[in-house]
Structures are given as C-alpha cells and as structure tokens.
Amino acid sequence: xxxxxxxxxxxxxxxxxxxxxxxxxxYEVADLGDSRYDENDDYVDFAKEVAQKVSLxxxxxxxxxxxxxGAGMDITANKFRKVRSTVALSVDQVYDARHDDNINILTIxxxxxxxxxxxxxxxxxxxxxxxxxxxxQRRLDKITQIEQQWK
Length: 151
Known about the structure:
Ribose 5-phosphate Isomerase B, Chain: A
C-alpha cells in the first residue's frame, strides 16, 4: 500500500512530521508536496494530486492531506471518483470512518492538531481495516451510484 501525502504551507510542518513517522514505521510514502514551505501555495493543488492518485487505486492506496482547517483539502479530495475523505476530529472518529465508511483519504487540520494527536490519528487511519458489514457496504454502494450519476 502506498500512502500519498500532500500539504499546503499551513500544513507543511505537520506533513513533514507525518512523512517521517510513516517512513520510520516502514510504510511506502509518496510525498506529493509541497516540497518546501511556500506561503503563496494553494491547498487545492496538493489535494488534487493526492486525490487523483488514490482515485486510480482506491483499494490499494491511501492519502493524507494537511492544511490549516482541513476543510478546503477535504472538499477538493471528495470531488474525485472513488475517494472517500474526511477531516479527522479524534482517534475514535477516524476509527469509525475507516471501519464503517472505508475512507481512503484522511485530512488533518494542522491549526487544530498537534504532532502527538496526529501520530495517533494517522496510526488509526492506516491500521484500521474496513469492517465490510453488509449495511456499511450497502451505503457505500449508494455513494458509488451517486458518483456515477453526477460526476
């Protein structure tokens, strides 16, 4: 599994921390930027890069996006087919989102999340499998129908 990372200037420092944390754990990480701190960059560009990659291989890859509030990145990522992204609120919420909703992109609000919490949240996102219960799959299938109809 490849984990794609992306962050704008507000998420740059936390993204660098997350990248090193994941690499230290032995995960294959593809950092799609920004590669340097640039206060004039746009979150949309990095969310697009990560979401495109995950959209092409939604079951075999994951994405982690980091920006100030998490909202802009999450909105952008969810425009892509087969992407299910959410803003991380807590470890328990991320567990439920992975287990029940099979999210494949996690968005972290750097303005509200410290390194220790980010580490726990990322660990939960990466290690929690989709539960696959019939009711959850039924709901995901309905989301797929909407994507096919409207995108």
